[in-house]
Write a sequence for this structure.
């Protein structure tokens, strides 16, 4: 992990530190169902530091990190199954109070600066959740204290909930928007009092880099190359997208190549599955589940089964960084292999 | 971002073959936007289309970067768009060179499901553009996304595709998309089922009258930017869309200009069926209200819904399409209003208006 102390005495992280902390050999969210419930333990260190944005600007973040000397935004992807007991230890290395909350599931309450707190809870409802710091809302969450949490149906490897449409593989897509002025105010323990003006947009913590740009194709830098984000599949590899929005901007999630099967909306199973090329993602913790079916692109002449397509937000302001730099925003690629 | 790079890509896969020249971040400067300004992270090319075959329907599109749009307040905003004379020009002239012929919105495309379609895009040497047929899912070589294939430059490229699903789509430029689509580089794309116009999709509803509600917002402060604004870095304000004009199907919708202007407005007799094809063509979310009428959504994004849904209003995100059938039973004039809603605050930024008259 590339990290160094900068003159502000904060840890400074190239974005290269982010993904590698989470990834094994594959970025796919892998899951093996169990017949029995288990106890899942996880420790998060609440840390802070700076992450360099595509235009070279260092922006302050906080994260649920894997160690004291790291900064991970978003926090590690967690996947458990119904009936499991989850035991989470939060080590707050900062001087400010924080919390760990999953709406409808658990709320740690206040964790003081310097305090360590362990919470234990059972998960009973399959679905896609955001874990986040609910204190000083929405500010602490916006600085990066959030992550994806998935509960699988008991004993199932291919459903969102019992009896749902089935999938072969699954990904989290966490979209985020960043106003560096707000982040700096929060760093200084002030309440932001400027109009919210996001300048950076990320997918699973990374902005994209177009081919030819510094960092392009580096999975630790480029959201288009990040195996947590870029979809890889063969025809038939139905892919669950667990889409979460810790940011404030309402977004339109748009896939090329295939329409998505839109299955849940803000935690509710939809009455009917609609086939959509754009899905409305609400701001301020909106979420949905959809399946990207990896069917042969239907309108190709002659027919094709391979190719590369983008996923991008159609709220196109989110495709920029620092007020320009198209394609340095929240997008990734979809590979039909 | 200290380097200025120009990528070239000549095959079906993305390449990083770049020629790098020295230079700083100047993407926001100037007003002409010619290639001399040095665009970054564009992928010029216009190769032969893989698998090219004979087309049933052909569209020849050129580029027009000077399309005046006069608003209700008398101000004229410069729009960009496609012209329908691209195929008649060489790479330097007329449509390709940006000398006119374009409209806002760009010319509509309409074909039947199963037709083999060619979209020939002719672009001059002054800039780059593409055509992405939004919601159409062709081979990636015909998808019009620069970083995956190429941005059409100094030549003609043929997008070949064959729509499998009837419905409402639109096409737009996908080069520096944040700017080019906002500047107006889009047009309506309708795929009729084999039965032809008058049927929404095979096995779906028929209709007697058709209306087109393409609702968009304009931030006039973006409209003096060059085509490559921001691509080499620099803050050109493309993260902030603060619209001051609101249009429906190319007409200022904030006043009465679109109230009685078919095929935006519609007149329908009781007992007839009106199909409204609604496209959220802006970036901010929208909410469209039907003035007391109840409509039935039969399809969205070019796909039938499993069950039609009765609605009096619809919330939509950027680029969503909804096909709504109205079968009004009461005489009267019904106001169709679409609020454009700020993507963060939820504030209503503006509203477009048109009408349905039932006789
Ligand atoms: Cu363009
Ligand atoms: Cu689009």
């Amino acid at each position: 992990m590339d990290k160094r102390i900068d003159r502000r005495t904060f840890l400074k992280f190239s974005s290269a530190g982010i993904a590698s902390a989470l990834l094994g050999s594959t970025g796919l969210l892998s899951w093996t169902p169990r017949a029995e419930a288990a106890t899942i333990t996880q420790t998060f260190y609440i840390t802070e530091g700076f992450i360099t944005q595509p235009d070279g600007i260092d922006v302050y973040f906080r994260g649920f990190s894997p160690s004291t000397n790291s900064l991970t935004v978003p926090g590690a992807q967690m996947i458990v199954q119904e009936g499991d007991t989850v035991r989470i230890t939060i080590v707050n290395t900062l001087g400010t109070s924080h919390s760990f909350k999953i709406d409808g599931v658990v709320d740690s309450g206040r964790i003081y600066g310097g305090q360590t707190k362990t919470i234990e809870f059972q998960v009973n409802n399959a679905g896609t959740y955001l874990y986040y710091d609910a204190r000083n809302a929405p500010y602490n969450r916006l600085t990066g204290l959030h992550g994806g949490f998935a509960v699988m149906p008991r004993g199932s490897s291919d459903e969102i909930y019992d009896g749902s449409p089935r999938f072969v593989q699954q990904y989290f897509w966490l979209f985020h928007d960043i106003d560096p002025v707000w982040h700096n105010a929060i760093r200084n323990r002030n309440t932001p009092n400027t109009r919210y003006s996001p300048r950076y947009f990320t997918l699973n913590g990374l902005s994209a880099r177009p081919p030819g740009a510094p960092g392009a194709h580096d999975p630790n830098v480029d959201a288009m190359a990040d195996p947590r984000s870029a979809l890889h599949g063969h025809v038939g590899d139905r892919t669950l997208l667990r889409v979460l929005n810790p940011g404030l901007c309402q977004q339109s999630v748009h896939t090329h190549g295939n329409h998505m099967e839109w299955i849940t909306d803000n935690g509710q199973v939809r009455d009917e599955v609609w086939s959509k090329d754009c899905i409305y993602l609400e701001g301020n913790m909106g979420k949905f589940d959809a399946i990207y079916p990896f069917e042969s692109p239907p309108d190709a002449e002659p027919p094709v089964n391979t190719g590369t397509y983008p996923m991008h937000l159609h709220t196109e302001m989110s495709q920029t960084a620092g007020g320009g730099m198209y394609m340095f925003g929240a997008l990734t690629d979809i590979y039909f292999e | 971002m200290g380097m200025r790079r120009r990528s070239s890509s000549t095959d079906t896969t993305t390449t990083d073959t770049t020629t790098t020249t020295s230079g700083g971040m100047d993407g926001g400067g100037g007003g002409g936007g010619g290639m001399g300004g040095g665009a970054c992270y564009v992928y010029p090319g216009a190769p032969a289309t893989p698998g090219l075959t004979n087309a049933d329907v052909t569209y020849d599109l050129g580029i027009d970067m000077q399309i005046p749009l006069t608003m209700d307040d008398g101000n004229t905003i410069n729009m960009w768009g496609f012209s329908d004379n691209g195929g008649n020009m060489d790479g330097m002239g007329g449509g390709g060179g940006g000398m006119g012929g374009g409209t806002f919105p760009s010319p509509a495309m309409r074909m039947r499901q199963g037709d083999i379609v060619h979209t020939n895009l002719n672009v001059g040497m002054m800039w780059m553009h593409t055509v992405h047929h939004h919601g159409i899912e062709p081979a990636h070589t015909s998808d019009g996304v620069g970083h995956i294939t190429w941005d059409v430059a100094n030549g003609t490229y043929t997008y070949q595709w064959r729509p499998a699903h009837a419905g409402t789509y639109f096409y737009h430029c996908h080069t520096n998309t944040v700017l080019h689509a906002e500047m107006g580089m889009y047009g309506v794309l309708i795929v009729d089922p084999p039965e032809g116009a008058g049927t929404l999709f095979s096995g779906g509803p028929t209709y007697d009258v058709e209306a087109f509600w393409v609702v968009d917002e304009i931030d006039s402060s973006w409209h003096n930017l060059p085509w490559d604004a921001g691509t080499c870095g620099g803050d050109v304000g493309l993260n902030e869309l603060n619209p001051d004009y609101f249009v429906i199907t190319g007409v200022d919708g904030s006043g009465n200009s679109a109230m009685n202007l078919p095929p935006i407005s519609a007149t329908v007799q009781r007992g007839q069926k009106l199909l409204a094809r609604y496209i959220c063509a802006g970036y901010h979310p929208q909410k469209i209200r039907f003035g007391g009428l109840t409509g039935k959504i039969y399809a969205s994004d070019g796909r039938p819904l499993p069950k039609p849904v009765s609605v009096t209003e619809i919330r939509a995100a950027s680029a969503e399409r909804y096909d709504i059938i109205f079968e009004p039973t009461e005489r009267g004039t019904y106001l169709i209003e679409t609020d454009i809603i700020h993507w963060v605050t939820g504030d209503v930024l503006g509203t477009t208006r048109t009408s349905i008259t039932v006789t």
Q: What stands out?
A: Chain B touches chain A through 78 residues (CB under 8 Å). Confidence is low (pLDDT under 50) at residues 1-36, 87-97 of chain B.
